[in-house]
Structure formats: structure tokens, C-alpha cells
Amino acid sequence: MQFLIIGKDGKDKKAMERRTVVRQAHLELGDKMEQEGSRWYGCVILDDKGTMIGSMAVMDFPSEKELQEWFKYEPYVTGKVWKTIEVFKCSVKKPWKFNRPQSFFESRLKLSQ
């Protein structure tokens, strides 16, 4: 079962500090979960100035129970980075179509810069 997760950071003065403190642990966990198959995609949400203000992830778990278990150790949750978390059940059509070589994405990034 796939889930779209949208976590929005707090807007207080220490919000970026909290994100920075746990960011590496969040990224490492995400990489591990990607290898295991439970994280399909993730990205940071930016404001108009390019400042990180949240995150988006497409996750795959057998049930909502496992999703809730993940929240218990996700660094952006335990580190109080995400002030709000929206969860939507979703169904990704042909997820394998995103499995392209790194060069494909690098060329797309060059086009957008």
C-alpha cells in the first residue's frame, strides 16, 4: 500500500536548526528504506527563496500500522522538524518508469538551471 506523506516544518526561529541537526540521520534512514523498498521517492519542499520548509515522500508499507511504526523513529518526527504531517493513501501507476539512469536526471537538471 502506497502513501504520500507531506511533512511541513515549523515556522519558529529554531525550525531550521532542528532540521539541520537531524537531516543526516533522516537522509541515511531514507536511503536504507529505499534499498529495502519501503521508500519509493522523496524530496524537500522549498519556499520561493529556496529555503527548506518541508518534505514529501512516497512510501510503501504493507499496512497503515507499519506506516505509523515508521513515524516512531523517523528523525524529522522524533526531532520535531515536521510541525504538520499529511498522509494520503495513493496508488503509483507504473512506478518502475521512474527507474532511469543517473545521466537522464543529470541532463534534466542541466536543462532547468
Automatic annotation (TrEMBL):
InterPro entries: Dimeric_a/b-barrel, Sec-metab_biosynth-assoc, YCII
Domain of life: Bacteria
Occurrences of domain YCII-related (ranges): 1-89
Pfam families, per the entry: YCII
Family: Belongs to the YciI family.
Protein known as: YCII-related domain-containing protein
Organism: Candidatus Roizmanbacteria bacterium CG22_combo_CG10-13_8_21_14_all_35_9
